[in-house]
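Extended Data, panel c. Modelled sequence:
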Amino acid sequence: MWLRPTRYRSSNGNALQIEVPSVHFRDWIQSNCMDKIRDAVNQTHGTPLNVEFIVGSEIVGALSAEETATAETLPGVDHFSTPFNAKYTFENFIVGESNRFAHAAAMSVADPESRAYNPLFIYGGSGVGKTHLMHAIGLRLKEKAPHLKVLYATSEQFFNSFINTVYRAMQSSKVDPTSFRSLYRGVDLLMIDDIQFFIGKEGTQTEFFHTFNALYDAGKKIVISSDRPPMELTTLEERLKSRFMWGLNVDIQAPDLETRIAILTRKARAANIAISPEVIFFVAERVQSNVRNLEGALNRLQAHAALDNRSISMELAQGALVDLVVTPSGPKIQVDDINQEVCNYFSIRLHELIGPGRQKKYAMARHVAMYLCRKMTDLSLPDLAARFGGRNHTTVLHACKKIERDLQKDTNLQNIVNFIERAVRGANS
């Protein structure tokens, strides 16, 4: 708030002049920031300079260097050349079981003729591909329909843009506060990344609420990402969360082993890194959290090989990644752990979960438990059947297939399964 409205005025051999909006700004900066400013100026210039402040009326409403840089990465009111990352295309996105549904939904939104899944809410942990899909949507839309106005912004950029507009409007009557609304409400597709950071920012939430309504009512597309599903954004306004549920909520989980192998293979080829399938399997089996960490592991292997003038061998990988990898010898998830979390969620008892009762809530909970046990443990179907009241293994298989089918179309079930799975993993971490 205090430094962004300042700007460079002039300099000579002895002094650097900085323009500030008012005497109040000058006094506050001199009292709180001068030591750091002098150090930065001297380090940059090489020799000591006096720092002088000029109070000028024209500074009000002007952008600082940092804001100008941000404005170049965010479309202006009549400038919509959003710099999407050219590497984040659908073609470069590795599709697996953990992200197949999210990928399909993003492809649909990227079709200029499609009006499905509005808003699209993508959620998942850090580094699993949410931003990649959002950039892919933008790139595909701009390729197929370059006349459309597409705007991607992080929650921080939206927040800073809003606060900056409000602040400048307070400082000068020449600044039109509606310019911010014209920017965000005049687009054909608005994408906001990491919306969980709106939590605690009441003014920003209110502004985004009205922006959302204006775009939705005008039939424009909205894509939002978060690290958790809407209903788990506990301190976000209820009216916002309810609107996020209007469209489609899709989850991206950490990639499975096969997907991690495919990701590493693709990235190694793209970077022209010579690496054997055995080493790729070693890395994929142990670096399990997200795509970003996989890429970091590959970069580390490449750096160690280059520095030591060696090829990437299993021995090098074991040494270079000793502090990155997760060994498979951690605590195993047990059927009892899963059943307990299922019982907690559905407010039933264990004997009701595994017993013969066929009431809807028992059957639903039992199917979810069987599905998660099949997914999260290495027990065979007959072994799992024995743990659920001595049922036939075909009963477990039927339950798993039913949940898999329903997950493709039931966002509420997706939220339930993902919530219970996270609870189980959290209790065993």
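Residues 335-427 form a domain with the Chromosomal Replication Initiator Protein Dnaa; Chain: A; fold (CATH 1.10.1750.10). This feature is highlighted in the accompanying rendering.
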